[in-house]
Design goal:
The structure holds two protein chains of two kinds.
Chain A: H1 2-13, H2 16-41, H3 49-58, H4 68-86, H5 89-96, H6 100-132, H7 140-168, H8 171-198, H9 211-214, H10 217-222, H11 230-237, H12 245-269
Chain B: E1 4-13, E2 16-26, E3 30-35, H1 42-49, E4 56-61, E5 64-65, E6 76-79, H2 91-99, H3 106-115, H4 131-143, E7 149-153, H5 161-176, E8 180-184, H6 188-194, E9 197-202, E10 205-211, H7 212-217, E11 223-227, H8 231-240, E12 244-248, E13 251-255, H9 259-269, E14 275-279, H10 283-291
Parallel strand pairs in B: 3-8, 3-9, 6-7, 7-8
Antiparallel strand pairs in B: 1-2, 1-4, 4-5, 9-10, 11-13, 11-14, 12-13
Chain lengths: 272, 309
């Protein structure tokens, strides 16, 4: 296992995409955190430190916008297995480390650690922006809750990218799926459910088809850091109460675990 | 030094039986050539040997399957792809990455880079390498762990004539050191110079396995040309020992027996011989004869079928 981790460590250190993806995530975070902090510093109506931190740490993601860092770091997950198939590396990899379980687990561990570290750095950048502009610091509990939510979501998001690439064995398709499922497919499903529900005999009643909305994995996972969003208002208006941070995290965690399980099963059974 | 033993290898893709009950042995101290027409299952067999493809049978290296080897690159070096590397990862880093899990230090990385002649481009990105340079990098990866066994799929692809000569000398040298070398190639003339033993397959099945000389000498295309003033009596004497005889330009061409057998038969019958010339089939002729009915992909244009008009 240590051998496989050593391989992943050198693999990640010696490929340019590791640096430009992490660099991009951090630069975006810094630029947008500074811009938002600048705007908040001149606003007299904005809320306290908790809300400020939520907005800055997620670059607006706490209001329902896509969590940009997750999409960027997610590509690291896709490339982790996608490069193996796109460039015919998989056979060289498996002749260096024939234990497929070790190879797969090492990829999962290395991407999880990298995604978590990157998201922690993004959170620290938010704190830096708060300090730079003299804004109110968050309370300890809010800091821990939001930070944990962000780190968990980004990590699970990146692992789902790894799993998509391992299942599809096609890097381009995996990138497309990772980008489109959270941002488009889930939105389409939400729209269709809302349309059906609002045209039903009981547009505000609980249960029924709206239950689906609680189990959309990425939307559910975002409950770990979203405080209030348009999507949430709409869902509640049609009788769908989203899971909270814990429930949403569990839904996303189970989804990613199932994806990884499927990817692993295929990885060990398929021809390289 | 490892004895490679492949037993009952088999692989099916859908309805297509790509490899069918292949068993062979590669002995230390020899270069074993792996021959077969396109699509005959050579690459699939090599992948099966290394556990990369899921199929039937088992291959052991001194009794241990590849997947059971600790630090496998120290035991078996393999080249299976033409360009098995990320195009933007520097050549040296590519090797360092493969070396890391096998406990191989950077000094050995630099040694193999030097050995394959890529020192000048060690910091280069392989995406810009020619096919031949890519092959050299692949060969460097195979040599990284100083393994006792090499499994190389078409290693001379893309190499220039100097490169092919270099590779031949290298593989012969490694075999002379007692290593087992199993190598596939389409370059039959090259294989004739390189290999000690052959495994010849067609449509996934074994066609021949043994020393190169035996494979060639068993070809029916080998013949003995005989000139004699006693041909009328000699031909029946040769047919009596199992030879086939055909008239040719003032003499006869005899197949199925050796020149020594022809001489002995003539002597026993009290017949005179004026010329006894052996024509040994080339490896290419013997290969084409052995695989003639085993081509997976057969073109419709055959010169012997009226191509020249």
């Amino acid at each position: 296992m240590i051998d496989a981790l050593r391989y992943e460590y050198v693999r990640l250190r010696t490929i340019g995409s590791t640096y430009w993806l992490i660099g991009s995530a951090l630069v975006f975070q810094l630029v947008f955190a500074v811009l938002i902090a600048l705007s908040l510093a001149s606003s007299s109506t904005f809320g306290g430190g908790d809300e400020t931190f939520e907005i800055l740490a997620t670059i607006g993601g706490s209001t329902g916008a896509p969590l940009l860092m997750a999409y960027i770091v997610g590509l690291l997950g896709v490339f982790s297995t996608g490069h193996e198939y796109r460039h015919g590396m998989i056979r060289a990899t498996l002749t260096a480390i024939p234990h497929r379980t070790h190879v797969f687990v090492a990829k999962v561990v290395s991407i999880a650690v990298l995604a978590a570290l990157t998201s922690v750095m993004c959170v620290l950048i938010a704190l830096l922006a708060i300090a730079m502009f003299g804004l109110d610091m968050p309370s300890g509990s809010a800091f821990v809750e939001v930070s944990a939510g962000i780190v968990l979501f980004v990590t699970l998001f990146a692992l789902s990218g790894l799993a998509f690439a391992a299942i599809l064995r096609n890097q381009t398709a995996a990138v497309a799926v990772l980008m489109l499922v959270p941002s488009l497919f889930e939105f389409i499903i939400q729209s269709v459910v809302v349309l059906i529900k609002t045209n039903s005999s009981d547009p505000q009643g609980e249960g029924g088809i709206t239950v689906i909305l609680r189990y959309l994995p990425y939307d559910a996972g975002s409950q770990m850091f979203v405080q209030s969003s348009v999507s949430g208002f709409v869902q509640r208006a049609i009788g769908a109460e989203p899971f909270g941070a814990v429930g949403g995290g569990v839904v996303m965690g189970v989804f990613v675990a199932l994806l990884l399980g499927g990817a692993y099963a295929l990885f060990v059974r398929r021809d390289a | 030094m490892a004895l490679i033993e492949a037993r009952s290898l088999g692989k099916t893709f859908g309805a297509h039986r790509a490899v069918d009950d292949l068993s062979f042995t590669v002995r230390p101290g020899s270069v074993t050539g792996f021959l077969g027409p396109n699509g005959s299952g050579k690459s699939t067999t090599m992948r099966l040997m290394l556990g990369l493809d899921r199929g039937e049978g088992i291959t052991t290296f001194d009794g241990v399957p590849f997947t059971g080897l600790d630090h496998p690159m120290r035991h078996v070096g393999a080249l299976l792809e033409a360009k098995p590397f990320h195009p933007t990862r520097k050549a040296r880093n590519h090797l360092r990455m493969l070396a890391a899990p096998n406990g191989i230090d950077d000094r050995r990385v630099d040694e193999v880079i030097d050995m394959v002649g890529l020192t000048g481009v060690r910091g280069g990105r392989p995406g810009k390498f020619s096919l031949g340079m890519g092959q050299r990098l692949g060969i460097a990866a195979a040599l990284l762990g100083d393994p006792h066994t090499l499994i190389l799929d078409e290693p001379s692809n893309g190499l220039d004539p100097q490169g092919i000569t270099w590779l031949r000398n290298l593989l012969k040298h490694l075999a002379q050191q007692g290593r087992s070398v199993f190598v596939s190639s389409h370059l039959l003339q090259e294989m004739a110079l390189l290999a000690d033993e052959l495994v010849v397959i067609g449509r996934g099945r074994m066609l021949a396995n043994g020393p190169v000389h035996d494979f060639i000498s068993h070809s029916s295309l080998g013949s003995v040309t005989v000139r004699s003033p006693d041909l009328g009596a000699l031909a029946p004497a040769l047919e009596a020992i199992g030879a086939s005889v055909a008239a040719a330009d003032g003499g006869i061409v005899v197949r199925g027996v050796t020149a020594e057998q022809v001489g002995d038969a003539a002597h026993a019958a009290g017949l005179r011989l004026h010329q006894l010339a052996t024509h040994e089939a080339t490896l290419e002729e013997a290969f084409l004869e052995a695989t003639g009915l085993s081509e997976e992909f057969r073109g419709t244009h055959r010169p012997s079928e009226g191509g020249q008009r």
